[in-house]
Amino acid sequence: MTQSYLELQNDNQKLQQEMLQLRGILEAKDQEIAANSEKISSLEHMVNWFRRQLFGAKTERRLMTEQAYQQLPLFAALETPETPPPAEEPTQKIKEYERKQRKTKIAFVAEDSKLKFTADVPVKTIEVSNPEVEGLIEGIDYNVINENVTYKLAQTKSPYVVLKYVQKVVVLKETKKILKPALPTPVIEKSIADVSFLAAMVVEKYSFHLPLYRQHQRLIQSGIHVSRSTLTKLIHPSGRTVGADSKGAFELHLTKRNSYH
After folding, report:
1. CA distance 202 to 15
2. What is the pTM of this model?
3. I need a labelling partner for 129 at 20 to 30 A (CA). Which of 57, 78, 163, 247 fits?
4. What is the pLDDT of residue 155?
5. Strands 123-127 and 142-155: what pairing?
């Protein structure tokens, strides 16, 4: 009897231990089920988001219906429906363009010169010396029979100035020989611009970043009418000359011209 009672107690203890183990297993399964439910809910949310991106209003793709999978009849795409001719659009008559005439004609100082400038532009006259008549007296040893006038555009520190070169053509009384002094050698042949103007134009464009159209506007405001195409033709050889071997030539010309910068 006593032995049977002890065996029952041992069995009862084993059952209680097994129940505790099963309870722990069930709690762990419940936690695992809850975590899996959260993961499934998150995955469903992601799937719904991707479905909205693929087949929602943000894309041109749409879910295909059964009607969309039906094959079109043969040559149906080649048949073009008859469309009525487009209606003629109403027209409107536009007033013809009329150009206004210039009110006043600009009066230039030297009409026959390539350099056009008005009377309010300061002009500095430079008389070109003739070394062949140095020491001779005008009126006794030679007579002045003509004057050749050449205008060059120059620039000082602030305003522009026109250099007027006067070449006196003389004839020697004794030998009847006609003499005319030569102009200073220009940097650009047959150019209306003095070396000082060329140097200033290159410096203002490439050092101070002043474009040619603004330099052209400043020339017009100063009374000097030079086309923009002329400035363009002057800037290219000037840039090549400055970049090549004209440093000494520029310094020599500026020294002879009393440093017109």
Report:
1. 107
2. 0.46
3. 247
4. 82
5. unpaired
